[in-house]
Structure formats: C-alpha cells, structure tokens
Amino acid sequence: MKIEKSYPTARDFLRYGLWALLAYTADANRREYRMRTTWLPHLITNSLSLLLPDAVRLLFPRGWRPRNLLEETAITMVRDNDDYAVYVAPLALGYITSHPRFNIYKGQWGEVQFAGFGLDSIPHAATAFALTGLVCNTLRVMAHQDEFEGGLAQALRWGNNRRALVSFTILALITFWWEYGEYRVHNFELSQRGDVTQINMMWSAADTARDVRSNFLGWLLAVLWQGRRQ
Q: So what's the pLDDT on residue 3?
C-alpha cells in the first residue's frame, strides 16, 4: 500500500486558529473563575471536534484503502471533507464568545434580547444549522456507497430517505444532554460559590427555553436549505 503525504490546507489553518482561540479562552476562564467544571469539558469537547481530521489522518493516511463503511465515512466526511472546518466552527466560536472580556452569556451582553432571543442564540442556531448540515450530507453521500453492505449501510440508506427526521432526533438528544449538563454544572458551581456572579456556567429555565428554540430554528433553516439544494 502506497502512503501519500498530506499537506495542511487553508481550512486546516482555520481549525488550528480556532483551537488557539479556544485554548486562550479556556485559560482565561480558568484564571477568572478557578473552577474546571466549565472550561475543561468545553476545551476537551471542542478539541476533539476541531482536531478530529488530524487524528483520522494518522489512523488512515493517504493511500489507505477503507476496509468497511465506518472507515470510508471517516475518510470521506472528516479526513477529505473541505467543509469539515465550517461544520465545527460554530461550536468552537460559541465557547470562544464566553471569554471574560466579551462574554455574551452573562453580564451586559447576556441581557441583550431581541424578539425573545439573546446574543447566545446566534451560536446555538449556527451550531444546530452546521450539525444538521453535517448529518444530512453524511447520510446523502455515504448512503450511495454501494460497494458496502451490512447493518450500517442499511441504516444509512434508511436514514438518507428520512434526513430531516434523523437530524432532528440527533439534535434533540444532543440538546437534552447539553442542557442537562449545563444545569448540573451550574448548580454545582453555585453550591461552591453561593454567588451567581462568581461562577462560569449560566443556566435558567428561561435560558434553556431560548436555547432549545434557537437550536430548532437552526435545524429548520438547515432542512429548508438542504431542500433548496436538492
């Protein structure tokens, strides 16, 4: 098997730049709040999403012949996908905008609202839009890999005919997991400090309702966009 060299692209440098800003923000929040319950999970989650193509390139270098549909999906949608950086950028930017100097989730910026949405609705909707696009495009592209058979291939072909439903379900599960995690972290930090102004993670029922609306607005826009592209 011939292994071909792979050189960084402009989209790779976008990911690396976002990761640098991510690390800078995480360190700023670490120094500001002295609690790892918020900055560390966000740093790990975003590092995994931003650096995943590099990990896939180590596992499956250029010239690698995929042995199954899972490897083919990782290579096609992550390693060789020029749009991957665009898909994961909103999630990273959502955390970068929590920097103590320009935090859109609390303080003066956190109080800004328009038509029932806050500034934090922008990264929420953008992340949901990007995630929906990634799910739909993965189903569309990988469902037509006819050389593969098996349970995963059948699931992808089934999901390709129900992209809106599948992406909605995935987004709903992630939204529940994310919001529940924020609720637990908020309560833990508040129990440690006793002052909401001294903690990193902001949460309230009203904020959760805005986040959910923003997420599914992003989903709806993505589904409509995908429909127009068809």
A: 39
